[in-house]
């Protein structure tokens, strides 16, 4: 990401919060055959020290990514949106894009078949929670274990991260407030991030 020190997010707890709220991730690997990217849900390991996430990939993505052989980049994309220059002072003509984004780095650990099934169960239960007619892998463990063999689980203990919250911090308080009010109507999650950053 562009080097913008005043947008840096350096607190690991803020990155953990972002992962919790936005678990759809992009995994990028610099493989021997070039760059490979895939998209999967991730779960934060709440009890882990530092930042650790678990996920899975569908076979043969573990081979395409050469998982476990090198560092990967996992991109967590939080709320983002276009910010129109029409919300600025009349002589300010350069629009922008506000966003909250984290780049996570580490070497993935491949999970055992049993650990993978546990992660798949946790992922399912997490996203099914609160839904009417929620489903669980445990409803047909034998069948879901057969299907799980088509996936490979992974754990990424994050060794470093680069995160940004670019939220119009460079604008005057009046313009910042106008942007936030405009986003309240079109992107309340981004407006909330702006207010959180201001406190």
UniProtKB/TrEMBL annotation:
Lineage of the organism: Bacteria, Bacillati, Actinomycetota, Actinomycetes, Micrococcales
Family annotation (PANTHER family): PROTEASE SYNTHASE AND SPORULATION PROTEIN PAI 2
Name listed for the protein in its UniProt record: FMN-binding negative transcriptional regulator
Top-level taxon in the UniProt lineage: Bacteria
Species name: Ornithinimicrobium cryptoxanthini
């Amino acid at each position: 990401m562009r080097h913008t020190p005043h947008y840096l997010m350096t607190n690991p707890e803020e990155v953990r919060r972002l992962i919790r709220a936005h678990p759809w991730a992009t995994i990028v690997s610099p493989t021997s055959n070039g760059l490979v990217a895939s998209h999967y849900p991730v779960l934060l390991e709440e009890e882990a020290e530092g930042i650790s996430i678990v996920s899975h990939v569908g076979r043969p993505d573990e081979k395409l990514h050469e998982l476990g052989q090198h560092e990967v980049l996992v991109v967590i994309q939080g709320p983002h949106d276009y910010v129109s220059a029409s919300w600025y002072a009349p002589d300010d003509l350069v629009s922008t894009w506000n966003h909250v984004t984290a780049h996570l780095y580490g070497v993935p650990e491949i999970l055992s078949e049993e650990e993978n099934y546990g992660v798949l169960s946790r992922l399912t239960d997490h996203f099914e929670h609160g839904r009417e007619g929620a489903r669980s892998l445990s409803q047909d463990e034998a069948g879901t274990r057969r299907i799980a063999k088509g996936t490979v689980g992974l754990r990424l203990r994050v060794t470093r991260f680069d995160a940004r919250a670019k939220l119009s911090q460079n604008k005057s308080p009046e313009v910042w407030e106008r942007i936030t009010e405009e986003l309240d109507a079109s992107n309340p999650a981004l407006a909330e991030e702006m207010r959180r950053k201001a406190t």
